[in-house]
């Protein structure tokens, strides 16, 4: 059976007889080996928490980015191959800039997530490429005044019947190019454990502090005793992206009862 698989895992565009794309599955494995990332939708914000262990005490902590600013009001958190994640973040930034120039207002979370997903999906059916070994959580608050201009958006965008057109939105984009909306999500190492915790503990209507605590608690399902130095934490609300510095990260861990003893 292994020899049969090897005949199909050399090309990303070739399905196996049982309908699998092995290269995409290998890309998902690369994501699962990456540092964990958790996203939680609170009542008026999206919280991102990520762990990025430092390989050396000589490394500058600020040089390791797990949470990225896309356009001042939307953000993305990546897990998997760092370089692949940075490329996808650039795709999201370029799309957001084009949307601003075209419509004169910021894009919606759904639009950015689907644009990144479309770019990822192309690599699964194009010869001479490989899938991206990274997954993104894309989030922000739709319908809020643009922090760059102070104006409220008015374009309908990609809305469909029954869709939510305002408020916190959170999407996952996986290596297959599938965008999926969540109330809370986890990707990277230990994501299954973090996701199971979120499915049990998540409740609608969380305030900002409650969403932050839940995200940190879910992260500890994958990381034993996270420290402020190894943690990335950000809140995306109507005012834009609020990235926590070392002292605020330590305070957030303490408030959640997760400070290292």
Percent of residues in β-strands: 15-25%
Query: How would you classify the helix and strand content by structural class?
Result: alpha+beta
User: Given the structure, what is the number of helices?
Assistant: 7
**CATH top level?**
Alpha Beta
State the strand order across the main sheet: 8-1-2-9-10
CATH architecture: 4-Layer Sandwich
Order of helices and strands: HHEEEEHHEEEEHHEEH
CATH superfamily: Aminohydrolase, N-terminal nucleophile (Ntn) domain
Fold and architecture overview:
- There is one protein chain.
- Helix 3 (82-103) packs across helix 4 and helix 5 packs antiparallel against helix 6.
- The longest helix is centred in the middle third of the chain and has 22 residues, at 82-103.
- The strands form 2 sheets. The chain has a 5-stranded antiparallel sheet. Strands 3-4-5-6-7 form a 5-stranded antiparallel sheet.
- It is α+β, with helices and mostly antiparallel strands and 261 residues long.
- It is globular, with a radius of gyration of 19 Å.
- The protein has one domain (36-149, 164-255): Aminohydrolase, N-terminal nucleophile (Ntn) domain (Glutamine Phosphoribosylpyrophosphate, subunit 1, domain 1, 4-Layer Sandwich).
- The protein has helices at residues 2-6, 22-32, 82-103, 109-122, 191-201, 208-219, 246-255, and strands spanning 37-41, 46-51, 67-69, 74-80, 134-142, 167-173, 179-181, 184-187, 231-237, 240-243.
- Strand 1 (37-41) and strand 2 form a beta hairpin.
- The chain is 33% helix and 21% strand.
């Amino acid at each position: 059976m292994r020899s049969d698989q090897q005949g199909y895992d050399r090309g990303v565009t070739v399905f196996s007889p049982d309908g699998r794309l092995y290269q995409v599955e290998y890309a998902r494995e690369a994501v699962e080996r990456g540092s964990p990332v958790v996203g939680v939708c609170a009542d008026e914000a999206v919280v991102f928490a990520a762990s990025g262990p430092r390989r050396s005490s000589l490394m500058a902590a600020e040089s390791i980015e797990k949470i990225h600013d896309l356009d001042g009001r939307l953000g993305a958190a990546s897990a998997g191959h760092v370089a692949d994640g940075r490329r996808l973040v650039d795709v999201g930034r370029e799309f957001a800039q084009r949307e601003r120039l075209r419509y004169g207002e910021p894009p919606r979370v759904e639009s950015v997530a689907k644009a990144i997903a479309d770019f990822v999906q192309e690599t699964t059916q194009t010869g001479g490429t490989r899938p991206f070994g990274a997954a993104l959580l894309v989030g922000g608050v739709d319908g809020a005044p643009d922090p760059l201009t102070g104006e409220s958006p008015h374009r309908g965008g990609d809305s469909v019947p029954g869709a939510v057109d305002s408020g916190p939105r959170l999407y996952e984009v996986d290596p297959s190019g599938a965008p999926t909306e969540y109330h809370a999500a986890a990707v990277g190492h230990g994501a299954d454990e973090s996701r199971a915790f979120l499915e049990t503990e998540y409740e609608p209507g969380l305030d900002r502090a409650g969403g932050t605590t839940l995200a940190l608690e879910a992260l500890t399902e994958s990381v034993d005793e996270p420290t402020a130095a190894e943690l990335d934490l950000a809140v995306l609300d109507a005012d834009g992206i609020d990235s926590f510095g070392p002292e605020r990260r330590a305070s957030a861990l303490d408030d959640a009862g997760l400070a290292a003893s």
